[in-house]
Design goal:
There is one protein chain. By secondary structure, the protein is mainly β. 0% of the residues lie in helices and 59% in strands. It contains no helices and 11 strands. The strands form 2 sheets. Strands 2, 4, 5, 6, 9, 10 and 11 form a 7-stranded mixed sheet that branches. The termini are far apart.
């Protein structure tokens, strides 16, 4: 079993910064990609940023230049540095990891419990 633990959410004023972290634990052979998603009430969960185990990143246009994603493969952790936050960045942020438990198995998606980000204007 794989468990994702998120931390770092909270309330910040517009223009401020937050850093979200996510640590994966359990039976892990390798994590292919780690991602952050955001969900607001009434909308689908949407991808904010992702990073492969080779360091290739994908950043949504709405946060490009303000958010940075990074990971530590040895520690199975992923960070999302969020700068110049805007009220529209608010929501519940979920960590996602595509995990292979054994080398011959396909990756399976695991999700964290979510962390709330609120941005006051």
């Amino acid at each position: 079993q794989v468990h994702l633990m998120e931390s770092g959410g909270g309330l910040v004023e517009a223009g401020g910064s937050l850093r979200l972290s996510c640590a994966a634990s359990g039976t892990i052979f390798i994590i292919d990609a780690m991602s952050w998603y955001r969900q607001v009430p009434g909308k689908q969960r949407e991808l904010v940023a992702s990073i492969t185990n080779g360091g290739i990143t994908k950043i949504d246009d709405s946060v490009k230049g303000r958010f940075t994603i990074s990971r530590d493969n040895a520690k199975n952790t992923v960070l999302l540095q969020m700068n110049s936050l805007k009220p529209e960045d608010a929501g519940v942020y979920y960590c996602n990891a595509a995990v292979r438990v054994r080398f011959y198995q396909n990756a399976v998606d695991y999700w964290g419990q979510g962390t709330q980000v609120a941005v006051s204007s």
